[in-house]
Design goal:
Blueprint (H helix, E strand, L loop, with lengths): L1 H13 L12 H11 L5 H9 L19 H18 L6 E3 L13 E6 L4 E6 L10 E6 L4 E6 L2 H14 L2 E6 L2 E6 L5 H4 L16 H9 L3 H10 L3 H6 L2 E3 L19 E3 L19 E3 L19 E3 L19 E4 L18 E6 L2 H8 L6 E7 L18 E5 L2 E4 L11 E5 L2 E4 L1 H5 L5 E5 L2 E2 L13 E3 L2 H7 L18 H13 L3
Parallel strand pairs: 1-5, 8-9, 9-10, 10-11, 11-12, 12-13, 13-14, 14-15, 15-17, 16-18, 17-19, 18-20, 19-21
Antiparallel strand pairs: 2-3, 3-4, 4-5, 6-7
Length: 511
C-alpha cells in the first residue's frame, strides 16, 4: 500500500520540486534503530524507510513543509524525549482527540518522531496507543502540542491525504531566498492546521454536516448568537473547539453545547446556570469548571468516563453521588458547597487531589479512607477538635497538604505521613510547629499570610530544601538551618532596604 501511494506521490512532487528524497535505508539500519529504541516498527513505516531514508536537508518537507526525518535523525530526536520522560512524562495537561485514542501524556518513549518543526514539536508514529487507538496511528506531540490529534489511523492514509491535497490544489508553495518549501492550504504551519481539519484524514470521526450546523445556528437565542459571532470565527469553529472558555457570560442555559461533542476542556465559571443537562452528551470532557453557579445537581455528569478534573467551588451542590461513576476522576475541587457526605469519594479509585471545606468530623473520617489521595487542600475547618485531625494520619500516600483559613494548635496529625514533601499554610495560625521539624521527607514549607508561633523549631528539619514566607520569617530563619535552604521567594512587599538584605543573602548563599 505504501509503495503504490509513494509512487503516485513522487510523481506529483517531482512536478513541483527537484528530487529531495534520500535513497533507501537497509533492513540492518532499521533493525539497529529498533534495537536502540526497543521498539518494533509497524510494517508501513518499515516499508517507507526501505524506500527512502528520509529527505535531504534542503528538501521542501514531505509532510506539508515539515521534513521526513532520516533514521539517524529519528533516533537523535527520540533520544531527547527519552531522556526527559522519567521526570516530565505527565507534565502539564494533555488531551487526546478523539478521546481514548492517544495516551494523555506529555512524553511517551513509544512515539516514533518521523518529522519535526525545529521548535520542539513532532509528527510521530504511535506504537503505544490508548484503548481506542491502534498501533501505527499518526499523531502530533511536542513542547507546544498540548492537544494531540490522531492525524491518520495509519501512515499510508496520511501519505494518501498528502497526494490528494496536491491533486486538489489545496496547498501553497513558498520561497525564502534559495529555500523552497510548501504548506497545507493557507496555513503557515501544518501542526496549527490540525485544529481545523476533519481528522483522522480519509476517515474523519463524527463529521458535522454544514446543514446541521446551519440549522443549529438558526435555533440559537440572541445571547448565544452574539457570543459565537463575537468570540469565534464561525459556527463550525465553535462546534469543533476542543477547549471552550465561557467565563462570566451571564449564561442561564447551555443548550447549544449539546452539539459540541469534541470538547475536552470546558470552563463555565461565574454564570447563572442551574441546569447542565446538555453536558451528558459531551462524553469526551476531561476538564470541567463550574465555579460560582447556582447549580445543585451533578447528575448529568454521571456518564463522563473521561472526566479527570472537576471544580464546582461556590455552588449549591449537596449530593456528589454521580462522582462514583467517574473511573478517571483525578482532581476534584469542591470548596464552599453544601456537600455533607463525602463517602462516595472512596469509590473514585483514581482520585489523587482533593480541595474541600470541612464542616464536621465525619467528613475527616471519610477523607482519611481515600487511600489514593496525594494532595489535600483543606479550605476551612469547622466543628473540629484537635483529636479529630488525627484521622489524617491514615493518608499514607499524601505528598502535599494545604490548610487555609484555620487556627491550629499543632500538626501532630501529620507525624505518620512519611510521603509528605510539601506543606502550605494560607491565612492560618499554627501554635506549635514541632511536628513539621521532624518530618523526614518534607522538602518545602510555604507560609502565605500565615504564622507559626514557635517558628524556630522549623530549623530542626534536616530534610527541608525550600522555605517561602514573609521577609521577617526569612530573616528570622536564615541562619538557623544546618543545610542550605532555598529562600528565593518572598511573599508580601519589601522596602528597598529589605530587598538589599535579601539579595545579598541570595548572592552569598547559592543553593
Amino acid at each position: 500500500m505504501i509503495k503504490l501511494t509513494m509512487e503516485k506521490l513522487k510523481i506529483q512532487l517531482d512536478q513541483k520540486f527537484s528530487s529531495f528524497l534520500n535513497p533507501p535505508a537497509s533492513e540492518e539500519e532499521i533493525q539497529k534503530v529498533e534495537k536502540e529504541m526497543a521498539i518494533k516498527f509497524p510494517d508501513d513505516i518499515r516499508e517507507l524507510y526501505l524506500m527512502h531514508n528520509g529527505e535531504k536537508e534542503d528538501g521542501p518537507g514531505l509532510f506539508f513543509g515539515l521534513p521526513f526525518l532520516s533514521l539517524n535523525d529519528v533516533l537523535q530526536e527520540w533520544y531527547v524525549w527519552e531522556q526527559l520522560e522519567e521526570e516530565f512524562a505527565m507534565e502539564g495537561s494533555s488531551y487526546s482527540v478523539p478521546a481514548g485514542y492517544i495516551k494523555e501524556r506529555y512524553i511517551n518513549r513509544f512515539w516514533i518522531p518521523i518529522s519535526k518543526d525545529f521548535g520542539g514539536n513532532n509528527i510521530g508514529i504511535d506504537v503505544d496507543p490508548d484503548h481506542k487507538g491502534q498501533i501505527g496511528q499518526v499523531i502530533n506531540f511536542g513542547r507546544d502540542e498540548e492537544v494531540k490529534y490522531v492525524i491518520a489511523t495509519q501512515l499510508s492514509d496520511f501519505l494518501e491525504f498528502i497526494a490528494e491535497t496536491i491533486l486538489q490544489g489545496n496547498y501553497q508553495i513558498e520561497q525564502e531566498e534559495d529555500y523552497l518549501y510548501w504548506n497545507y492550504k493557507n496555513s503557515t504551519h501544518f501542526l496549527d492546521a490540525l485544529k481545523s481539519l476533519e481528522l483522522p484524514v480519509l476517515n474523519p470521526v463524527s463529521p458535522i454536516s454544514k446543514e446541521d450546523t446551519s440549522k443549529w445556528m438558526q435555533d440559537l437565542d440572541a445571547q448565544w448568537k452574539e457570543i459565537i459571532q463575537e468570540d469565534f470565527s464561525n459556527p463550525e469553529d465553535f462546534i469543533k473547539r476542543k477547549k471552550l472558555y465561557l467565563i462570566g457570560k451571564n449564561l442561564t442555559h447551555i443548550k447549544p453545547l449539546q452539539f459540541c461533542t469534541e470538547v475536552r476542556e470546558l470552563i463555565l465559571t461565574n454564570n447563572q446556570l442551574t441546569d447542565i443537562t446538555p453536558l451528558n452528551n459531551m462524553l469526551s470532557l476531561k476538564k470541567l469548571y463550574l465555579i460560582k453557579n447556582p447549580l445543585s445537581d451533578l447528575t448529568p455528569l454521571a456518564n463522563l468516563e473521561h472526566l479527570q478534573e472537576l471544580n464546582f467551588n461556590y455552588t449549591k451542590i449537596f449530593d456528589i453521588t454521580p462522582l462514583g461513576r467517574m473511573p478517571r476522576l483525578k482532581n476534584l475541587e469542591m470548596d464552599q458547597t453544601d456537600v455533607k457526605d463525602l463517602s462516595i469519594l472512596q469509590q473514585c479509585q483514581a482520585l489523587e487531589s482533593l480541595s474541600v471545606s470541612i464542616v464536621n468530623k465525619e467528613q475527616l473520617k471519610q477523607i482519611a479512607q481515600i487511600s489514593t489521595l496525594k494532595q489535600l487542600n483543606i479550605h476551612q475547618l469547622k466543628n473540629i477538635e484537635e483529636e479529630d485531625l488525627l484521622q489524617l494520619r491514615y493518608l499514607k500516600n499524601l505528598q502535599v497538604i494545604t490548610v487555609e483559613n484555620c487556627y491550629l494548635k499543632n500538626l501532630d496529625c501529620l507525624s505518620s505521613n512519611h510521603q509528605l514533601r510539601e506543606i502550605i499554610l494560607k491565612n492560618t495560625v499554627l501554635e506549635d510547629g514541632t511536628a513539621i521539624g521532624v518530618l523526614k521527607n518534607l522538602k518545602s514549607l510555604k507560609l502565605d499570610g500565615s504564622t507559626i508561633e514557635n517558628l524556630k523549631v522549623i530549623a530542626k528539619s534536616s530534610s527541608l530544601k525550600k522555605f517561602t514566607g514573609s521577609f521577617e520569617q526569612f530573616y528570622y530563619l536564615k541562619d538557623l538551618f544546618h543545610q542550605a535552604i532555598d529562600f528565593s521567594t518572598i511573599i508580601g512587599g519589601m522596602t528597598a532596604e529589605k530587598q538589599k538584605v535579601w539579595h545579598q543573602y541570595l548572592d552569598t548563599h547559592k543553593v
